[in-house]
Automatic annotation (TrEMBL):
The keyword Metal-binding applies. Residues 7-23 have a biased composition (Low complexity). One of its GO terms (molecular function) is metal ion binding. GO terms for biological process: phytochelatin biosynthetic process; response to metal ion. The lineage of its organism: Eukaryota, Sar, Stramenopiles, Ochrophyta, Bolidophyceae. InterPro entries: Papain-like_cys_pep_sf, PCS-like, PCS_N, PCS_N_sf. PANTHER family: GLUTATHIONE GAMMA-GLUTAMYLCYSTEINYLTRANSFERASE (PTHR33447:SF20). Residues 4-255 form the Peptidase C83 domain. This is glutathione gamma-glutamylcysteinyltransferase. Transmembrane segments: none annotated. Residues 1-24 are annotated as: Disordered. Keywords: Cadmium, Metal-binding, Transferase. Its EC number is 2.3.2.15.
Amino acid sequence: MAPVSTFPFNSASDPDSSSDNSPIYVSSPSGLSLLNTVSSLPSLLQTAFHSPVQINQANCGIATTASLLNTLLHPPLSPSSPSSPPPLTVPPTTSYSPYPYYTQSSIRSTPCTSQILNTPPFSTLDGVETPPYGMTLTQISDLLSCHIPPSYTSKILTTSTPYPLFTKTLNSCFSNPTCRVGVNFLRTSLSQPGGGHWSPLLKTHSNYYALIDVAKYKEPYIYFITPEMLYNSIDNVDDCGVWDWPSAQDGLSEEEREGGVDENVKEKLGCIPHKRGIVMVYE
């Protein structure tokens, strides 16, 4: 992991966006100005409150899923919000009982999700923390479908959709108060160190979205990006965006399960390059 001091928003200089692909961090003067003009401040605050810190660097997808589900379970207090939360399938948690709440551990504990994640009791592994590490678009979509009611839809959107239609589709989702969005983007496309990453996304202005980064140890974790920046951040390929999950992980040796994702491991997993993108959930 790169030292925290290498992150642009931890430098001594003011982290205003000075290049076309740099986000505007909320701690900067420009970021504070944008924060003061957010069109959906209750939604922004609610998502920030309910976005957990990912428990390790492979679990950004799990943390993002927990955030999206918890904001459905506890919608923001605004006139456009549903009068009551949808009937979600919330796994019990000993930590918070009797209050319903999704955690990165409880999401793993249902029969539906354990098959998607290749975790106990379905497997002796933790598929998220085994090569290829993390979660694909399809896995996140299926994971959300384990918990949302039948009236809700989980939809994947990539840059295979042309930019005008992509933006129109995404903004149409955001016009629905039940819409929740998770993004799988490439950090370097936003001038950040790192690789592929998941985080929740909100629409905050006519020309800005906000990412609520679940890697909160890389503060400030709220930053604004333009629609063009969003599109460019997912307009790239995950080398193992599709693979033979979950069964292929069982064929890895003990050494391979704890190592990196080299070409031999990719071949065993049946890795196929696939575009990054977003997952939308809405009624």
